[in-house]
Amino acid sequence: MLRVESVFKSFDEFMAVNGANLQVEKGEIVAVIGPNGAGKTTLFNLITGLLKPDRGRIIFKEEDITPLPPYEICRKGITRSFQIVNIFPRLTVFGNVQVAVLSHQRRSSNLFRSAERIAVKETREILETVGLLDKENLVAGSLSHGDQKILEIAIALGNEPELLILDEPTAGMSPEETQKTMELIKRLAKMRELTILFCEHDMEIVFSIAQRIMVMRHGRTIIQGTPEEVRSHPEVQEAYLGEEYARG
Amino acid sequence: MGDKRKPSNAVWILGIIFLFLIFIPPFAPRFFTYILGLIFVTSLVAMSLNLVVGFGGMFQFHHGVFYGVSAYATALVLTKTSLATWIGFMAGPIVATLTGLIIGWFCVRLTRLYFGMLQISLGSLLWAIVFRWYSFTGGDDGIHGIRMPSLLMSLNNSYYFILAIFILSLLLMYKILKSPFGNTLQAIRDNPQRCEAVGINVRRYQLLGILIATFFAGVAGVLFVILERSVFADLLFWVLSLEILIMCLLGGWFTFFGPILGTAIIISLRTFVGKYTEYWTLILGIILILVIFFLPEGVMGYVQEVLKPKMKEVKQEEKGIDASSGIGF
Ligand SMILES: Nc1ncnc2c1ncn2[C@@H]1O[C@H](COP(=O)(O)OP(=O)(O)O)[C@@H](O)[C@H]1O
Ligand SMILES: [Mg+2]
Question: Is pTM, for the whole model, over 0.95?
Fold first, then answer.
């Protein structure tokens, strides 16, 4: 479904992504792991069009999406959440998700109908799924950090994506919140037949839900494979996972 | 629910103001009626600007140009051709919107500050053309004695016509702000990057916002001709654009009615202070600085802030901060 073919991206001389390769098949949950600064966020920015690669191609459903602007990539069926909360802080929780739903339904340019009555059912459904329905009228900026991260995911669902990309969805969450979010991600994958690509630095989480894992280091792909293959890869063991994960 | 009560209060207040405005002309001195008319016309320009500045977050620094272009288009049709009056009235908004399309098309391609700078340059170019093209626009003399149909001959009749169009325009703008487009425009103001990420072509929506704003500025341009029967190049000069911007900031640029309040304050000040001193622009600059320091959300925004604790009491049972409405009054 998604193929990243030897992609490079530098920020003045510094190679943030230095030959990354990634393959995601329909219906899979794929994780990208790697230490801080490995280039995971930059890779996601490249896939979603926020950044343009210096070299390499990104293919989605047999189509080269490398040159497309972010809004067109979204319309092809890829949406994402952000590692650092990136919502509409002045709008309500409902309004945040509705913006995405309206865009998905191509109704954002409707001038004369009252927005209060459009796309309400679809928006509420998403809020219900993620468990934010009881907070729909609150100003998004006033939510707790954990709820804002959930809202991140809810906004991304507004476009009914085929491929959902989550950049450290549990960053800064408490253990219970993390647990709940993981349940949510699994549930979404099943209920909505979503393909999910996410990155995380918590190893336990990754190995518990990812079907395949890609390991990044210094912007380079070390390996992509099943959790077992990744665990037993020598460079991964040495560089990243440490003893306990190597033993499994 | 507290927020069900609030609009009905607002409706009462608006109703009373409206009745007052209808009954005032026969009793008030001519000059007072005229100033009120001027406040309506200028408020409409300020509110149309606020659509893109306050709700759209764009640096529309030379909005007066669209107002002026419309006034000139109307004046030229009415003086240089024998076309029907209503064609002259239509010409204003159409020319303003077309100008908005051309200038806006370039501006939305730039980042915020460059957007503003390019608009000032292109706008000043238009001003220079109007100012220099003596044979066509009358240069710095302007155009005077523009004919009006008999229905709009008396000041009072003009006043009512202006009031009607003004209120109609406000209703339309309010509806647009409450529409999906209005929501999207505000979302773009708050976070354009996230908007792109949910499939919104930000530039296209910004341009649409500019078209709507310049259209209403165009409507105001026609109303100006109806009120004044003349046009002059100052309508396109940057000082006027600055004044309009200050009206929005002063009144409250995150509120719907704020610009009207700002306009009323500035026009009253200019009318009465302007009599005693020629340093009006300087005073304007000082007002701007004071507003930025002491009332960053404008007078209307400040009033809302003061009223807030009372509204919170009403909603005691509800947890957290409730957004009663995306658009404040
Ligand atoms: N816009 C940018 N400009 C300059 N350097 C950047 C930028 N974005 C990321 N980097 C650098 O690229 C490297 C990879 O960053 P990032 O992709 O955020 O890593 P990760 O998400 O894996 O922690 C980091 O060293 C970071 O400092
Ligand atoms: Mg990151």
Answer: no
